[in-house]
Amino acid sequence: MLYDISDFIKNEDHLLSLPATYWYEGIDPKTGQILKLPRTPLVEAIARQLMQQLNPHDQGKMYGVLLVKTASDSLKVLKAFSGFLNRHVEEKGWASSISGRESILLEEKRIVILLDELKAKIKRLQSIKERQELIHLEHQFFLALEQLKDQQKQSKKIRQEKRLYYSETLADLALKKALDQLNNQSYTESKRLKKFKEQWSEKLRPLQDKVLEAEQSIQHIKQRRKALSRQLQTQMFHAYSVTNFGGDSRTLNTFMDSIFLPTGTGECCAPKLLHYAATHQLIPLAMAEFWWGKGNKDKVNGQFYQACEERCQPLMGFLLSGLNTAEQESSQVDWDISLDILWEDQSLIIINKPEGLLSVPGRYFDKQDSVLSRLRHQYKDGQELRAVHRLDEETSGILIIARKGEIQADLSQQFRQRKIHKIYEAILAGNLCLDQGIIKLPLWGNPHQRPYQEVNWEKGKGKPSVTRFKVLKREPNQTRIEFNPLTGRTHQLRVHSADAQGLGIPILGDRLYGSSAYPRLCLHARELSFIHPTTHQKITLQCKTPF
User: Fold this and answer.
1) Range of 71-85, 126-140, 255-269 with top mean pLDDT
2) Interatomic CA distance for residues 113 and 116, integer angstroms
3) Does pTM surpass 0.70?
4) Average pLDDT of the chain?
5) Of 7, 58, 336, 392, which residue is the catalytic one?
6) How far apart are CA 499 and CA 497, in angstroms?
7) Is 392 one of the annotated active-site residues of the chain?
């Protein structure tokens, strides 16, 4: 399990004194201190040699190495993988899974077997012979229908020509008789088409019923699979326990509500490596995580990465707690700074967020102060609080915080269904000729320029975004404007303002999409209307625009 540095590289002395290239960071949940662990050129060199031992054609995953000091002051190396390796969660020579998995191993195997059985049932239902027969017959039906329609179209054309001819050559009873005959032909063909469809409908219906019954069964099985997966995941989060360097142990469910824990939390490299080191009295000196194998849209083979935001970062502060090394740096965040509360009850806390404050904590140590972080430290039920939506750090205005998971789910659904009415006020850094209008542009987050968003019409990339706008006031070289976003894409209003395909004028103070040196971004969430999840009454809130 522990390897010598020489198992990976020789003559490492020249790397020992080189400075860190990156710091893994987390907030100590007890003290609020920022705890740090470096990624150094030495541990990167060890990681690159490990890469040479791996198959680049394997399914891509994260790997990690941890340089540690033992009780006898010797340097050793630990290595770990995320998830499964060779279809196993445990592999000889690699850091083991965090504690607790063994306690639910039998239950995990039972549920995995059930999930496999349900997956097999879905495949059988998807491949029933009636489905293929229906596809074949429907194809025949549509071909025959098109052929019949073509025939009747030609007949109709001929009848129209005859009507015109008879109108010019016949009169009185002769004309009436001829036109009646043509009308009867038209009626007969209409009945023929109707009878044709009825006959095919009778022929297709038994197969359609069978396929519909199979689809309903598939949906039921998928719901059952989802429930079983959620049940297993919840059991894992209650069983998995991580230990830090102060000797404290916590189960994963205590870090956040299990509803919002991503699948696979606790199975990443960093928790495995740090938990193993803490439980074996090893002092971590440096760590490196990298992606190896087939790449995807976010990960590149052989590239180093930070701790993942969803799974590892929430654990990092706790895992590093208890370390007392010279490399550790710390900082205090004042969690007690008051916020402007617009509404508060047992379900909701609604804030007038100041500009310059994050809605939720960021990934790195200098981005932990946020509306959500302060409220979580100020309220007894703080760990239950959930952000329903977000405002950019530079944007001020109305922000909803839910006090329970089900409240967040209700309001999130209202956002998805566009039942929440939002009004923003902004100042554009220029003169807008239009008085009002609507902007529709597909927005795409460039993974190489995060958090930058751009207009991208390529299929499968840009996501639809829609904004209504209305000019409120015009001043020299400025336009005060009201925005009503109908979708909620990242930086939507800022891109819709600045991009030439939108208004073509950036918001005043926008340093990302414009070049203004104005002291703040002039964008404010001024009004918000929604249906209260508990009382079911319509709530409308306003807060004065500060610029």
Assistant:
1) 126-140
2) 5
3) no
4) 87
5) 392
6) 6
7) yes
